[in-house]
Design goal:
Blueprint (H helix, E strand, L loop, with lengths): L1 E5 H14 L11 E7 L2 E7 L4 E7 L1 E4 L1 E6 H10 L4 E6 L5 E6 L2 E6 L18 E3 L1 H12 L13 E8 L2 E7 L3 E8 L1 H6 L5 E4 L3 H7 L5 E5 L3 E6 L4 E6 L9 H4 L7 E6 H12 L8 E6 L3 E8 L3 E8 L1 E3 L4 E5 H9 L5 E6 L6 E5 L5 E5 L2 E3 L5 E3 L3
Antiparallel strand pairs: 1-5, 1-7, 2-3, 2-6, 3-4, 4-17, 7-8, 8-9, 10-15, 11-12, 11-14, 12-13, 13-26, 15-16, 16-17, 18-22, 18-24, 19-20, 19-23, 20-21, 24-25, 25-26, 27-28
Helix pairs in contact: 1-2, 7-8
């Protein structure tokens, strides 16, 4: 194998590949980046045995071939080289990859080609286009509500399902928070299986890093979710999870009917919660709300740090006079909205509370209040 590449054209793809492979653990072939030169192009491939990445970039190919190198070392070397042309050549013995740039010369050991397992091809015949920015926004609005515990099966996954008439719902759940985004995409809704698609949270960080400014094509097979840039230069493949997602309509329905409604100014509330959080402790990490028609009195009391009280102007209708929420969680949720004002729908002092905003259509986040105990300590209830 012998080829010449330009660093600026390949470095971003190399960094994406390096982000997927395991840093230290796992078999050596999983820590490899595979370089394939053919048809005037170079393909960069990496996998952690679950996610598969392939990027194809321009190259001057004098001799075609396939080689695997220690991924992170190779990427670190290329990253630190100056801009310009880089030549890659296999030595005569086939045991080393020679990298040269001007007077700079390096030798890297290569892996046995028998270690290479062909990657899944992109099923282009069923692909539908989608905005990368829109998918990124959906993931941002949902991912923070997904459980980090892989043992939690379905609720450790991002879930997306069709709902009829081209509508799609994407959501995340962790037991005490739930986020739901609805949108319309006729082609994608037609392609999604009726039971929906589940992708484990541990793969979403790599997906978000991969998404760029270029729009994508997406397709789904029985076992995998496949994504490709519209130019065809990069592909990412993720495994689908096989769990059954909970019926979240059971707690969404509690936000309907004649329930308490609290309208607040988002920015002012976040700032107030930030100050309140200073007075939270491990055993008491909530903010109390004393509610009246025009005012919400926020308070917190820490055994060692003192107490805090703040008043917010609000619009409130309902019978609930006192309710408590985990401060940091509430701040995090409000930070994912763009609306100037938010409405909190309170189903009860221990029931689901929904948060919505006029400038965030089809977006709902549910948070569970903290149970107020007589001894002034609090425990979280599950959704």
């Amino acid at each position: 194998m012998k080829l010449t590449i330009i660093k600026e054209q390949i470095i971003e793809g190399l960094q994406k590949a390096a982000g997927i492979i395991p840093a230290k653990t796992g078999a050596a072939y999983l820590r490899s980046i595979w370089i394939k030169a053919e048809n005037g192009m170079v393909s960069i491939m990496a996998t952690d045995a679950n996610i598969e990445f392939t990027g194809t970039y321009p190259a001057t190919v004098q001799e075609e071939g396939l080689v695997g190198v220690q991924g992170r070392a190779f990427v670190d070397l290329v990253r630190q080289l100056p801009a310009g042309e880089i030549t890659l050549t296999m030595d005569e013995q086939g045991s080393s990859l020679l990298l040269s740039q001007g007077r700079r010369k390096y030798k890297l050991p290569v892996n046995d080609q028998s270690w290479f397992m062909p990657f899944a091809a992109f099923p282009a015949e069923n692909a539908v286009p989608w905005s990368a920015d829109f998918l990124q926004d959906v993931l941002d609005k949902v991912t923070f509500c997904i459980s980090d515990d892989d043992a939690m099966d379905a609720i450790a996954c991002f879930y997306m399902k069709p709902c009829g008439n081209g509508r799609i719902e994407a959501c995340g759940l962790n037991g005490h928070q739930f986020a739901l985004v609805g949108f319309t995409h006729d082609d994608l809704a037609a392609m999604l299986p009726e039971e929906g698609v589940l992708i484990q949270k541990k793969y979403l960080a790599d997906l978000k890093k991969w998404l760029g400014v270029e729009d994508i094509e997406l397709t789904i097979t029985d076992k995998r979710l496949h994504l490709r840039t519209v130019s065809g230069s990069e592909m990412l493949s993720l495994p689908r999870a096989g769990h059954q997602y909970p019926d979240y309509n059971a707690f969404l329905s509690k936000l309907e009917g004649d329930i308490a409604s609290l309208t607040i100014h988002r920015k002012d509330t976040i700032e107030a919660l930030g100050r309140i959080s200073i007075f939270n402790t491990e055993s008491d990490r909530c903010t109390y709300m004393e509610l009246s028609s025009t005012e919400a009195m926020l308070s917190a009391q820490g055994q060692d740090v003192g107490s805090a009280n703040e008043s917010l102007e609000v619009r409130y209708t309902g019978e609930i006079q006192r309710i408590a929420f985990p401060t940091r969680n509430l701040m995090d949720i409000m930070g994912h909205f763009a609306s100037e004002s938010l409405t909190m729908l309170l189903s009860g002092t221990e029931g689901p509370a929904g948060i919505r905003g006029a400038a965030d259509p089809d977006y709902t986040v549910i948070i569970m209040p903290m149970k107020i105990a007589e001894n002034m300590y609090y425990s979280e209830e599950d959704v």
